[in-house]
Structure prediction request, 229 residues.
Amino acid sequence: MSQPADALSIPSWYRDATADSRMTPGHDPVWRQMIAHIPEQDLAAATVLDYGCGQGGLLRLLHALRPFRAGLGVDVARDAVARAEALSAGLPLAFDTPSALAGQPARFDLALSHEVIYLLPDLEAHAAEIRAALRRGGVYYAVTGCHTGNPMWPRWRALVAEITHTTPQDFSLDDFHEAFAAAGFEVSARQFRFEGFVPLKPGAWTKTVEEALRYVTETKTMFRFRLPR
Prediction:
């Protein structure tokens, strides 16, 4: 990011701080699908980074399903980092702000982010930050449906700005591709394609069944950014 990470710190993701604790159960089915799409099965010797970890739910779930050697979650939400530490006692996980990555170059084999990269004001700086954090051959999986190709984006952009402490950016899928390709990553992508039955919660985000189904089958995208060996 173009600013020091700590300068961008926020107390919590949502303006209603209690909503942060509801993110883990709400995201669990989507995180399970994300993990299912990751081809690397044996992570026993791997060190994993979760960028924008919130309260650490994705890292804990990945460790439960595919145990790894050590993990670090970073987030600008101060209260989320503290809560992640408390919820992860006894696991080989640590949590900090993104500025901690500066002291850990080329440490990680695998990096993840879920619905985070669309909030970062400087994609090129983020690509450089991830490149510095990964070992040669390391892979970064970034999932987002928040982009200008999403027909619901104008409504969602206003909603994100209203209910969170974040500032959404107007990126296209091509913007994500170009930023990481320019940083030297091999870039590939897939539609998220939620397998099985899609949980339906009509409301502020998806107002109809059709919107909900189209979002997870067509709009939500999973990028694979891989560093050459």
In short: The CA atoms of residues 93 and 217 lie 32 Å apart. Helices lie at 23-37, 57-65, 78-87, 123-133, 153-163, 173-182, 209-219.
